[in-house]
# Entry
Amino acid sequence: MNLSLGVQSQNVIEDADPSAGFEMLRKTGFSSVDFSLHGYLTNLDIYQGQLNDFFDPGIEELKAFFAPHKAAAKAAGIVFGQMHMPYPIYVPKGSRELNSYLRGQVAPKSMELCDFLECRYIVIHGFKQARELGSEEAEWGETEKFIHEIAPMAKEMGITICIENLYDSTGGHLIEGPCCKAQRCVERIDRINDQYGAEVLGFCFDTGHANLVGLDFEKFLCQLGQRIKVLHIHDNDAVQDLHQIPFTFTRTRENKASTDWEGFLQGLRAIHYEGILNFETGPVLRSFPDALKEEALRMIAGIGRYFAREIETAG
Amino acid sequence: MEIVCSPAGVMDRDCLRQGVKNIAEAGFSEVMMDLSLYCTGREIEGGGRDLRHGRACRVLQEANPIALQDEAEDFLQLASEHGLHSSVAYMPYLLTDTKLGDCSVLLERLAKESILACRHAGCRYLVVRPLFSGVEKKELWEANRAFYLGLADAAKDAGVTILLENQCRNVNGHMVRGACSEPEEAAAWVDALNEACGEARFGICFHVGTASLCGMDLHGFVTTVGARLKVLLLSDTDGRTEGGFLPFTMAAKGASKTDWSRLMSGLREIGFDGAMVLSMGDTVKAFPLPLRGEVLRLAKKIGQQFQEQLASDIETLLRRYPQRVIFGAGNLCRLYMRVFGEKYPPLFITDNNAKIWGTELCGLPVKSPAELSAISKECAIVICNVFYHQSIRGQIEEMGLGNPVMVLNDEYLFSSKKSSEEDHDANGTKMGAGIV
# Structure
């Protein structure tokens, strides 16, 4: 098996003893971690304007904070395959101070930490402003402004910023949000990378979000092609963003998976995906009792191995 | 622009009279000729018989090219008696979870029979769903290209435009995006078909319920397909199942599950003037029989509301008058100033609240309504108050001014013109506005 497996650090890696978490990942079959930097400044707190002081210290102090994590990962043979920048990085109704802090402090420090942890991919969320600005194009314009703020750092550090397909909602029904239009994403990624003469921008395909808004997995993956750099693999009931284990949900009495995993595998096979099969399934580890955490991780890794075999076997 | 009633759920092929009567009495003048009434998805699935009811389908059991036309004859007769016309028809179609495999031969036959029925009924548009069953995804376009082009000559002879409709695909009960659901694809298919047959014989029917079910960006769809869009099939979604629900009936926390505001915004941008079909079969059937007529009346009013919103070209109306004043010194007035204030500045603002007379709002003086008597007759009065616009209109009429009056309605303004963060409601939803 050439494709390696990764999983979200949330609910596994604890700051008090990062070694235990990384060791558990190794034992359960993973070689990569999707580091949840967004767990240090949550979206709920950002939306409520209740910032903590995690990102206040200087970058050297922050690096020192994560030095044990870096050492523990290395000792366990785990690489930082990708990380998630805190989001949102712009709050439409937020104060000038809040938005200035997010863009001026949180974003660049996230880039520095990504580099410090020798992680080459950082996932960001595009801004959700289509309703406010009247069009998806105008919304992307704002996201692109932000990308240009951090792209020079990305180029210098050899990091690829990855935009992710997101959702929005109306009346409790989830509908497509930023970065769900494959053709436009292709054009934008290529244009920006041409501009910088480097692969500063790529794509993170999120299976759960795609499932919520009915995207055709295979078609979407094939359109993005080699621009797909990282994955957020998780499952849901197509109603809520539950971040659960693949193959968990069904809709009919036949009890076949209601998420198009076959299309997902076909797509990855077609684009010759060589990245990490990364599971964004942190919430799973909260629903299972602690005593079953390792078993849950083993099961996720087992699904990852199945995916890898299916992708690596010519279809 | 026509407001069309879909008969789905309103009538059954064996019991047409009351349904047609209800549609006519609700004020519709257009009814869709839904040929799937005479050949249902379940009947196709059962090889000519609906296995649930045991009912046989004559269209499928007889090899008669005008069987659909014959079957629809009673409907057309009744519709005509009630002053109803049919400009849009809908061809029979497969269930999304069909187990039949390749049905292209049968569907081509039904499509051609549907075209004949359209010619007989005088329908301009026929909605023909793309082939999907038994077709490999990578061969979808080629299979459909052959299918649709095979209908082009018959459609031309009949003076019918064939409309491709955005589809959902059934993944073990979960509806995801299917053929023509991405607007770029739908537009490309229609363009290629029209180019191949040398004329605009094909267009698009946008099924709003299907698109919304699949979480699509409604604004993005209509603005991408633009003038190719000929018919709009309006129905709401519960977010889980295929269904025909009356617009605005599927809601949670005070907001609709379909983003009507963004849809309207897109339709305005492209100047949509095609047919709007209200499809609400599930809603109608859920009501007791004596109330179904009332549901149809509400549907008609909803159609009119959409029609009015689309017909209201705000800028055209504002441009029509050299001067304007605003009645109402509230949030809507601020919205007006933000969106139109620079291009169409008011002379002043008036309000019934005496406490604010003599103050300024957005740099304009706030005056007593009595000052309206001094404005020129060509000056429009723009009412910026959604809740009291009727009483304000009455107040202006009582003053006997004779000035043109318009109401700024905050339902569906071109949200693209707004950029302030203050316009979000509690859910972060942008409110819009329009003039009615």
Remarks:
- Residues 234 and 278 of chain B are 5 Å apart (CA to CA).
- The radius of gyration of chain B is 25 Å.
- The longest strand of chain B covers residues 202-207.
